Amino acid sequence: MDPGFGVTSLVTAPLCWAAHPTPRVPQGKVPASSILASAPSDRNLDAWRESGCRTTHCNLEVLQESTLVFLATKPHVLPGVLQEIRPAVGPHHIVVSLVAGVTLQTLQRLLPAGTKVLRLMPNLPCVVQAGAMVFARGSGAGDGEAALLKNLLSSCGLCEEVPESYINIHTGLSGSGVAYVYLFAEALAEGAVKMGMPSGLASRIAAQTLLGAAKVMLETGEHPAKLRGDVCTPGGTTIHALHQLEKGALRATVMNAVEAATNRACDMAED
């Protein structure tokens, strides 16, 4: 018998779907009817129902019916959720936390000894099955649990197991990095608008340019510096444009942004 899959959440929508009105179920992995979502109000559950998932207002019901349980709450709410569900957590459960700033050590301390715990950090493009996710396993989770999670989430994009120390870096690189890309896309399109192109067309071309560049990076495995060099020709348009970006310290500014977001993620873990 296939294990049941459940999602438990106590506030708003689960974090990995909070910025999108409709939660996406990984295609071909788990039937929507096998997902049980818990939240404190009907408003938080409407989107899940529209996707065909079952819903409840009782977190303990999720534990009773499910083997794989995702915790997706605000950080300050999580301790209360863990206290509530702790008596129902057994050796057959796999508990996956998506909660920012809460370490595996904390999760293991607040759950029964030996609980199979993993910590996952997704990003916004998971909603269109193009996300970048990393996860780390606690001491009670083995290769089987890691393989299960990676296989399940592969439908949502890239999913890699990493040391827990990389999770905050991933937040600065990819979780927050999506916003950096949107800012760059906006500037790219506005540059074209300045030169006379209609805004809608400029935005579509900017988005496709970013998508295509990313796909080349992933499919070739080449370092971005090498690919950047491939686009440049002596005395051409690209090298003149890159000179302007270098004068604006784009590279250093983006590196500083990743550092700032990573440090903030570390600070949140210590609060």
From TrEMBL:
Pfam families: F420_oxidored (PF03807), P5CR_dimer (PF14748). Residues 164-266 form the Pyrroline-5-carboxylate reductase dimerisation domain. It is found in: Cytoplasm. Pathway: Amino-acid biosynthesis; L-proline biosynthesis; L-proline from L-glutamate 5-semialdehyde: step 1/1. One of its GO terms (cellular component) is cytoplasm. NADPH binds at N59. SUPFAM superfamilies: 6-phosphogluconate dehydrogenase C-terminal domain-like, NAD(P)-binding Rossmann-fold domains. Coiled coil: none annotated. PROSITE patterns: P5CR. Transmembrane segments: none annotated. It catalyses: L-proline + NAD(+) = (S)-1-pyrroline-5-carboxylate + NADH + 2 H(+); L-proline + NADP(+) = (S)-1-pyrroline-5-carboxylate + NADPH + 2 H(+). NADP(+) binds at A72, T73, K74, P75. One of its GO terms (molecular function) is pyrroline-5-carboxylate reductase activity. Residues 33-101 form the Pyrroline-5-carboxylate reductase catalytic N-terminal domain. One of its GO terms (biological process) is L-proline biosynthetic process. InterPro entries: 6-PGluconate_DH-like_C_sf (IPR008927), NAD(P)-bd_dom_sf (IPR036291), P5C_Rdtase_cat_N (IPR028939), P5CR-like_CS (IPR053790), P5CR_dimer (IPR029036), Pyrroline-COOH_reductase (IPR000304). Its EC number is 1.5.1.2. Gene3D superfamilies: NAD(P)-binding Rossmann-like Domain, ProC C-terminal domain-like. Keywords: Amino-acid biosynthesis, Cytoplasm, NADP, Oxidoreductase, Proline biosynthesis. Oxidoreductase that catalyzes the last step in proline biosynthesis, which corresponds to the reduction of pyrroline-5-carboxylate (P5C) to L-proline using NAD(P)H. Proline is synthesized from either glutamate or ornithine; both are converted to P5C, and then to proline via pyrroline-5-carboxylate reductases (PYCRs). PYCR3 is exclusively linked to the biosynthesis of proline from ornithine. Homodecamer; composed of 5 homodimers. NCBIfam families: proC. Belongs to the pyrroline-5-carboxylate reductase family. This is Pyrroline-5-carboxylate reductase. The lineage of its organism: Eukaryota, Metazoa, Chordata, Craniata, Vertebrata.
